[in-house]
Design goal:
- By secondary structure, this protein is an alpha/beta fold.
- It is 32% helix and 30% strand.
- It has a single domain, classed as Severin, CATH 3.40.20.10.
- A hairpin with a 5-residue loop joins β4 and β5.
Amino acid sequence: MSNSASGMAVCDECKLKFLELKAKRSFRFIVFKINEKVQQVVVDRLGEPGESYEDFTACLPADECRYAVFDFDFVTDENCQKSKIFFISWAPDTSRVRSKMLYASSKDRFKRELDGIQVELQATDPSEMSMDIIKSRAL
């Protein structure tokens, strides 16, 4: 079922993989992309549980937009082990204007399909999603 505003459907695999990340912690992160030919959001890459935040940021293309979810583990000041699921909207300045508009107009609907996101972040370059920013947003 696509949204009339953006015309973008969400592939069932996106929702299934997100549920696996959330419930079973099968993945550290998931990168999603819009397949313009079929007007659908699809899974681009799955990050293994042992992969790091650096592995995640390295797989985001420098000149193309993406959506991503990252399961961030951290320890609170009270020494409690916690985790938060980040939704990251990646739209580098060097990506095509049409692509940025498409991702921006589809983002809210896509995000609603992924129940359980705790923190949202928008980034146009790697400095806007540095580990320091992730840590500060998680606490």
